[in-house]
Design goal:
By secondary structure, this protein is an alpha/beta fold. The protein has helices at about 5-10, 55-60; strands spanning about 5, 25, 25-30, 40, 65. The chain is built from two helices and five strands, in the order βαβββαβ. The mean pLDDT is about 90.
Length: about 70
C-alpha cells in the first residue's frame, strides 16, 4: 500500500491535515508493536485497552500519522 495522506483522508471523508498533505502512508495499523516509518497508527479506545497510551511508542517507532478519535 502506498497512498498520500491527503488521498486517504479524502477516501474516508475526513478533513485535510495542514502541512501533512504529501505524507506517504505505506501501512495502517491499530497495533503499536507493528508501527514502522510510513505507518498510520489508529489509537482506538477499546473495552480493555486505551491505545492512546501507546502514542509515544508509535511516534518513537516512526509513525507518519496518527488517528486519535475524540473523547465521547
Amino acid at each position: 500500500m502506498n497512498i498520500l495522506l491527503s488521498e486517504l483522508l479524502t477516501l474516508v471523508r475526513l478533513p485535510p491535515v495542514p502541512h501533512k498533505q504529501d505524507t506517504l502512508i505505506h501501512a495502517v495499523t491499530a497495533d503499536s508493536r507493528t508501527v514502522c516509518p510510513g505507518t498510520l497508527f489508529f489509537a482506538f479506545v477499546g473495552t480493555k485497552v486505551d491505545a492512546r497510551q501507546f502514542i509515544p511508542m508509535a511516534i518513537k517507532q516512526g509513525a507518519s500519522a496518527l488517528f486519535v478519535p475524540k473523547d465521547t
